[in-house]
Amino acid sequence: MADAMEARPPSAVQKTTFTVLGICCSSEIKLIDRILNHLEGIENVSVNVLAKTATVVHDPAKAPASRIGLMFHRLKPVSALNGAHLNAGIKESGRVQIESRPWPSASVVASGALLLVALCSYVFPPLIWIALLSVTVGVLDMLRRAVAALRRCVLDINVLMVAGQSASISFEGSVTVSNDDDDAVFGAIGLGDYLEAASIVFLFTLAEWLEAKSTNKARVSLESLLNLAPQTAVIAETGETVHVKDIMINTIVVTVAVAEDSAVARMVKLVEDAQNRRSNMEEFIEQFAKYYTPGVFLVAAGTAIIPWILGVHPLRQWIYLALVLLVIACPCALVISTPVAKACGLSAAAKMGLIFKGGNYLEALAKVKAMAFDKTGTLTEGAFEVVEVQCWEPNANIGQFLHWISSLENMSSHPMARALVEYARVRGVKPSSEVRNFNLIPGGIAGFVDDCYVKIGNAEVALSNGWLRENELRDNEAGITISYVGMVDRCIGYFCLGDQLREEAARAVQELKKQQIHVIVLTGDSKAAAEHVQKQIGENVQVEAGLSPEGKMKKIAELKETWGLTAMVGDGINDAPALTESDVGVAMGISGSALATETANVALMSNDLRRIPEAVELARSSLRKIYQNVAMSLAVKLLFFGLAFGGLPSLWAAVVADMGTCLLVIFNSMHLLHKYGGRESSTSSSQVPQEQSINVDEFSEPLLSSERRDQDEEAPCLCCKGRSSQRER
Fold it and tell me: Confidence band (pLDDT; 50, 70, 90) for 110?
């Protein structure tokens, strides 16, 4: 692997993900950026607070990672991050890093125990000095991080907390006692706010542990996906003896990919990549936070300095107010309000069998006003059955006719093609391996079979080529797809195929209608076939028939102009242009083509259409959680600003409010996991067999023979000029 990486051209970039388990607050994103971006060869840094990872895009020539395994502790990014006490390391490919800390650290427990002892100073005053010991025990890690942040001119939560504790210890206090008879003022000589400083340290470190424990619960949902991955495959060469526990007769296990290339690992990678992508709301909040913290810090500094310059007394009151403002200057809860809800939503969607390629698509799906569905293979099962074959060629029998059809169709991975090839095979007809100049035409396919140029297509192909007149076309029947076969200037026959509507299709469409979403069916099939589907799913659904891939794309553009945000659900290569044109493209991951899944923004990892309205519901809930989190965060900040200038809150109360809001935001977001994460068991087993959900590569086209795969790679793709064999019917 090292040689492969070193052989890459100098201009190539490499992506490496690091675990940064020491992240305790979103304000440390800037610190990590400052640490890594000054290293030579680093091009981009993306930090995921919830997942506690930093993804680095770097030039391997200047910042090589070829010896990551051997030089783990000496790798520059790791060393630099650990220099700031951020507990960094290389993230294992395809694995979710879970920090298992069922109990607070020893320093947190010790700090809390010493604080309890110090509280007894109300009975025995000398014990107040124990509070200083409590601060010393608990503040060390915080102090190290604060120093690292200040060295890079970054104001993070550690700097603010250390400043608050230092001031609490440094400034002396006074107590005023009064009654109805006389006034007396007693000075508390030489006493600093040691108890409050100790309270700040303990409450902050305890809240930090609670926050880490809560975020781990959100991240652990991804671990359940990894449990699907097979463990180990043993390669037994000829003559090699392998010791096994059991032998199962007539059972063959085929290993088709290494663990990091498995469908499960790629599912996890897609979700992690989606979490790393910033949504529009997230970017806005982060931009706001960049100005919020320095702004509040300046207000706090002014609150302490201006009264001192003006000689306003008591000065201690203004300094104390400045400290409270320092504590609430950290926008932790506000900054994580969006990513934590987004991450929980993405994880819940993954457990439901929906892989979003970015949090922005989750937000967009929540606002979708129109949704278009492809018919064949999406609303219908795509399990075609040949119901009629007619040969009109006088010099050919039905066997020769099937040979021409199956040879040309063998170049395609369309469900119709597979049904026709199988129909011919059962009748003893084998497709020719010599098919030349195979190409896609509007509404069909064409190519040379045994030196005969054959075209197969819909009614439009038959009419445009002059094979038949309108009144000579076969009568359309409900639910039947008719394709015509021609040579040069004549039609030599036709065939009819039937397809069944998915059992859950009507229910899924009507659920979308209840969600106030305009639903439209786009198909290249005949009007009669489209109207037959319309009758089954609901007369209130719009249908558009006879559309080419470009026609579907134009229809999506019209929907966007008329309705606003538009989603498209499809499964074939011919759906790729429409999926790309839509605001949110949803691909059928199991039955769909690789290109459809690649161009789509969301992959449905089953054929259960009920997941679509559930995805809309989840997206809307996630967006509501984001709004709720932002509102709670801002409300608490504004409330404490008002209370602070009213002289009411104390420092420890500000710490509790600040960290408590973080926890509240996390728990509120985790409700998405509890509400939607348990829906994975409701997937219809009849539609997604257990072995398929584990072993089938959902991101590739349906399984073909090696011969057909090789041929498919030679077929030109209409929409991307790549190589494919799908066509529009």
Answer: confident
547: helix, strand or coil:
coil
Q: Which of 35-39, 365-369, 595-599, 685-689 has the highest mean pLDDT?
A: 365-369
CA torsion angle 303 308 310 311 (round to 10): 130
Tell me the C-alpha distance between 505 and 519, whole Å.
Answer: 12
Q: Is 374 a catalytic residue?
A: yes
Q: Which two tokens stand for residue 614?
A: 């559930």
Look up the CATH architecture of domain 385-498.
3-Layer(aba) Sandwich (3.40)
Answer whether 521's CB lies under 8 Å from 541's CB: yes
Do 269 and 98 contact (CB within 8 A), yes or no? no
C-alpha span between 83 and 312 (Å, rounded): 43
Class level of CATH domain 354-381+502-616: alpha beta
> What's the pLDDT tens digit per position in 602-626?
888 888 899 999 999 999 999 999 9
| Contact call for residues 609 and 403 (beta carbons, < 8 A) | no
Question: pLDDT value at position 191?
Answer: 32
Buried/exposed code over 663-685 (b: 16+ C-beta within 10 A; e: otherwise): ebbbebbbebbeebbebbeebee
Comparing 359-373, 419-433, 566-580, the range with the smallest average pLDDT is 566-580
Query: Can you list the positions of beta strands (E) in 488-616?
Result: 490-498, 518-522, 542-544, 566-570, 584-588, 602-604
14-20: strand order across its sheet: 42-48, 53-58, 14-20, 88-90
Enumerate the domain spans of the chain: 2-90, 106-225+270-345+621-677, 354-381+502-616, 385-498
Q: What is the CATH number of domain 2-90?
A: 3.30.70.100
The pairing of strands 354-356 and 370-374 is: unpaired
Sign of torsion over alpha carbons 617, 619, 621, 627 = negative
Provide mean pLDDT across the span 160-172.
58
Token pair in block for residue 316: 């201690």
Cα–Cα distance measured from residue 44 to residue 66, given in angstroms and rounded to the nearest whole number: 19
Higher per-residue pLDDT: 703 or 485 = 485
Alpha-carbon dihedral sign for residues 350, 356, 360, 364: negative
Indicate the DSSP class of residue 476.
P
Other CB atoms within 10 A of residue 311 CB = 7
Strands 542-544 and 518-522: parallel
pLDDT digit string, tens, across residues 491-549: 999 998 888 888 899 999 999 999 999 999 998 887 888 888 888 898 889 999 888 88
Structure tokens at 686: 């009849």
What are the structure tokens assigned to 495, written together? 């065939």
pLDDT at 100 over 60: no
Selecting among 374, 499, 525, 608, the annotated active-site residue is 374
Q: Do domains 354-381+502-616 and 385-498 have the same CATH topology?
A: no
pTM: 0.66
What does the pLDDT look like over 418-437, one tens digit per residue? 889 989 999 999 888 888 88
Selection from 373, 375, 370, 609 nearest residue 507 by Cα: 609
